[in-house]
Amino acid sequence: MCGAIDRADVMLNRADIEARVPHTGAMCLLDSVTQWDANHIVCTGLADSSLHALANADGIPAVAAVEYAAQATAVHGALLDDAGTPQAGMLAKLSDVELTRGPLVGGLTVRADLLSRVPSGCMYEFTVHDAGCCRARGRLLVALQDVR
């Protein structure tokens, strides 16, 4: 479905992530940022159904990969805005989403590539991998609200 992603050293840990986004506690699905620049971000997270806020009786549904991707874009936006005015955002649209069957398990790598950014929103292409397999891919549009 999509190519593999190499893991790198941790640049930001969970506490750093929680300090930049509104997701905290069990709803913060990301554990680290391993790479980022102005055009992309790579994060890791653990899909452990015993601790996961989105788990059901069958485990963590594959559609939860979209939330991992959305949180990665939130972290990326916060990192881009660290020197400027932060903006609140919300997931406005998903497109071209492909999910694999079965629940998410184990360590996940989430990559989000910024395709465009304007004052009112941004668009990202994302992939979510577990150990060796692409579990989800697609595009998401984030609507931004100026908080000045």
Report helical residue fraction.
10-25%
- The CATH architecture designation is Roll
Strand order, largest beta sheet: 1-2-3-5-6-7-4
Question: Briefly, what CATH class?
Answer: Alpha Beta
Helix-strand pattern: EHEEHEEEE
Uncertain stretches of 5 or more adjacent residues:
3-8
| Secondary-structure-derived class | alpha+beta
User: What name does CATH use for the topology?
Assistant: Thiol Ester Dehydrase, Chain A
Number of domains: 1
The value of Rg in angstroms is: 14 Å
**What is the average per-residue confidence, as pLDDT, rounded to a whole number?**
87
Secondary structure tally: strands: 7
How would a crystallographer describe the biggest sheet?
A: 7 strands, antiparallel
Query: What do we call the CATH homologous superfamily?
Result: Hotdog Thioesterase
Shape: globular
Instruction: Tell me the distance between the termini.
Output: 41 Å
Count of helices? 2
Describe the structure.
The protein is an alpha+beta fold and 148 residues long. The protein has a single domain, classed as Thiol Ester Dehydrase, Chain A (Roll). Helix content is 16%, strand content 44%. β5 and β6 form a beta hairpin. The termini are far apart. The N terminus is likely disordered.
Write the layout of secondary structure elements.
Elements (H helix, E strand, L loop, with lengths): L11 E2 H5 L13 E5 L3 E8 L16 H18 L5 E13 L6 E13 L2 E10 L2 E14 L2
Antiparallel strand pairs: 1-2, 2-3, 3-5, 4-7, 5-6, 6-7
